[in-house]
């Protein structure tokens, strides 16, 4: 199958949206930012070329001031909060978590307060959206997140009831349990098309693409460039703050 055939189902799905007089919404979240690197520059330049905003999940405890000066000059990049140290506190027989139930809640919340303070020190522009490392957080913590200072939570998967607004990623381009490179393009396109169809026939969340610039292989970069090209002018790629504002204005949303 040629690459053009792989992408044809997306072109067809976008045409169905266009025929209905609607425009789908996409957003991009990239995780594990610490410092300015060549992969970071490649992602920032690529998204700038296609005018795609990035919610850049920064690990506050390890963030370099050089990252802040680089990001502050690029208006399409919006830093958000990726835990505190991205350190696993779960036992070896459990899935990794930094914000799990394995430590006193007060200790975890204090670290999150430090995260907000560090972000405020580093960045001129950022959003108090919490992206839990490994997309996992103890549900018992979420009622306290707003009083700590967070405005929203972003994990992976379909949204579930939560104590504050959710802006989830829904498409992860990486094959974490296999090659640890980009997932097959055909599989990714099929997932995106399925989510586009669900959104077109009823109220569904924006399609959130999740990336990890530090571990991208060449296939991941090729996929992103083709995705941005295929969707250009046919969908809206929105900033995380815009997405939250639109969700708040939608009847029945959180």
TrEMBL record:
GO terms for biological process: carbohydrate metabolic process. It comes from the Bacteria. Signal peptide: none annotated. This is Polysaccharide deacetylase family protein. It comes from Pseudaminobacter soli.
């Amino acid at each position: 199958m040629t690459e053009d055939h792989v992408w044809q189902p997306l072109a067809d799905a976008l045409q169905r949206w266009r025929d209905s007089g609607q425009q789908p919404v996409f957003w991009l979240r990239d995780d594990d930012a610490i410092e300015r690197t060549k992969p970071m520059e490649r992602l920032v330049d690529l998204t700038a070329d296609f005018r795609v905003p990035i919610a850049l999940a920064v690990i506050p405890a390890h963030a370099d001031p050089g990252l802040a000066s680089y990001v502050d000059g690029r208006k399409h990049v919006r830093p958000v909060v990726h835990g505190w140290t991205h350190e696993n506190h779960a036992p070896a027989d459990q899935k990794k978590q930094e914000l799990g139930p394995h430590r006193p809640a007060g200790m975890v919340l204090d670290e999150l307060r430090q995260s907000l303070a560090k972000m405020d020190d580093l960045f001129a522009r950022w959003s108090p959206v919490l992206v839990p490392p490994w997309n996992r957080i103890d549900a018992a913590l979420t009622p306290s997140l707003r009083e700590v200072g967070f405005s929203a939570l972003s994990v992976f998967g379909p949204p579930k009831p939560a104590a504050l607004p959710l802006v989830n990623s829904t498409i992860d381009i990486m094959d974490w349990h296999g090659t640890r490179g980009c997932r097959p393009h055909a599989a990714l396109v099929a997932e995106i098309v399925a989510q586009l169809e669900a959104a077109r026939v009823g109220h569904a969340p924006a399609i959130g693409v999740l990336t990890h610039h530090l571990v991208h292989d060449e296939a991941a970069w090729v996929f992103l460039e083709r995705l941005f090209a295929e969707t250009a002018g046919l969908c809206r790629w929105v900033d995380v703050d815009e997405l939250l504002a639109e969700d708040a204005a939608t009847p029945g949303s959180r």
